[in-house]
Amino acid sequence: MMKSPTTDYARRNPSSGARSTPDRYGYSQSSAYSDSSTERKSNSGRNAATLAVRSVAGAFIACFTPPETEKSKNQLDSEEFKSSSGSVISNASGASSDRKRGSHRGIYGNSYNSTQGKEAGSLHLTMEEIYDATRNFSPSLKIGQGGFGTVYKGRLRDGTFVAIKRAKKNVYEKHLGVEFQSEIQTLSRVEHLNLVKFYGYLEHENERIVIVEYVPNGTLREHLDCIHGNSLDLAARLDIAIDVAHAVTYLHMYTDHPIIHRDIKSSNILLTENFRAKVADFGFARSAPDSDSGATHVSTQVKGTAGYLDPEYLRTYQLTEKSDVYSFGVLLVELVTGRRPIEPRFQLSERITTRWAMKKFVDGEAISILDPKLQLTAANNLALEKTLELALQCLAPRRQERPSMKRCAEILWTIRKDYRELAASDFRSFSSSSQRSASIKV
């Protein structure tokens, strides 16, 4: 098997919880988003978007991606985009590369040693060892259930904890075999600290097993639902968005051949104890079109998750990297609102979260859609507005109007930088005010 080591690194406050793997399924054209594929043009300005929404009720608004300036093109070469070793993503001449395949330097590669000391793809376990690690697939060790099968927490004989994915055994579900092969082939090709690490796989009689890194702190969706206790603050949510943007940018631009994930969603984003995000579940992954041959898309059956599906892909069966960008736009809205993409419990006008949120945003009512678990501060309001502006671009009906994942990462870095500066200013103002109040009381 091919080897592709990846690692974890730490920051933020620790937490705990179990991981779950949600359902995945092939998707037909009967999507709740199928009516949002009408193509409309507007510029990226707020006023133009407002006119578009008000002229066509209940539809999405697209905005063209702002033209990249030399400053934005070179932003990846800034201090903020350097790895801890000080390297940056660059080609031989020092300029940033739009598609540098096979490069693993800087933030899109990973040269650190694994905390668990396991080489990717290095485990060659027998079924006896799998049974031993999972105590014969004990229900008490079950940590997830999905379309692929069941996920168990396992402990190897050397003490290492792993996640063991056991495929369903229904011989009539031939697509599961395809997903199994897709997942192991993709995982064996990639290495990034924001992707789950692949340890190995096993096919034995009617058993199909995938062994991956155990990520202990649950999924992003679970944390947005406060299943593990306290809610994530907006600073943590921005960090997670950036982690995911880096991971998907790596898949699109810095692997030997570009990869489209096809199932970017909050329940496929696992969090470490230090709240590092790791993108998981590569059963739907596909190789991107070969741009060197002039191909612009891959024609393929529609697969994904309702609420995250690119309406253009749904309508045309043409898959590109921009389908992941659309799903990422849905994820951004999910992060700032706390809502799931489809919310049947709400009234009809609010059931499709992105449609509801985008209309509120362009009507100047963004503050009303902020997750009620988040505080109403100047810094949060700024980050909310800027994040929704980026989401609006990602959700454009036509793929040509959506930014690249690399551009999304750049914009998110800027949003986080501005957010931190304003939050620090707010804190200093609050401290000064508290000191003045204390002196008056004395």
TrEMBL record:
EC number per UniProt: 2.7.11.1
Family matches, as InterPro entries: Kinase-like_dom_sf, Prot_kinase_dom, Protein_kinase_ATP_BS, Ser/Thr_kinase_AS
Biased composition, class Polar residues, residue ranges: 1-19
Annotated ranges, domain Protein kinase: 137-414
SMART domains noted in UniProt: S_TKc (SM00220)
Pfam family, one: Pkinase
Gene3D superfamilies hit by this protein: Phosphorylase Kinase, domain 1 (3.30.200.20), Transferase(Phosphotransferase) domain 1 (1.10.510.10)
Annotated positions binding ATP: K169
Entry superkingdom: Eukaryota
Reaction(s) this enzyme catalyzes, per UniProt: L-threonyl-[protein] + ATP = O-phospho-L-threonyl-[protein] + ADP + H(+); L-seryl-[protein] + ATP = O-phospho-L-seryl-[protein] + ADP + H(+)
Region described as Disordered: 1-46, 68-114
CDD domains cross-referenced by the UniProt entry: STKc_IRAK
Bias kind Basic and acidic residues: ranges: 68-82
GO molecular-function terms, A-Z: ATP binding; protein serine/threonine kinase activity
Skewed-composition ranges (Low complexity): 25-36, 83-96
Keywords: ATP-binding, Kinase, Nucleotide-binding, Receptor, Serine/threonine-protein kinase, Transferase
Family to which this protein belongs: Belongs to the protein kinase superfamily.
Protein name: non-specific serine/threonine protein kinase
Taxonomic source organism: Quillaja saponaria
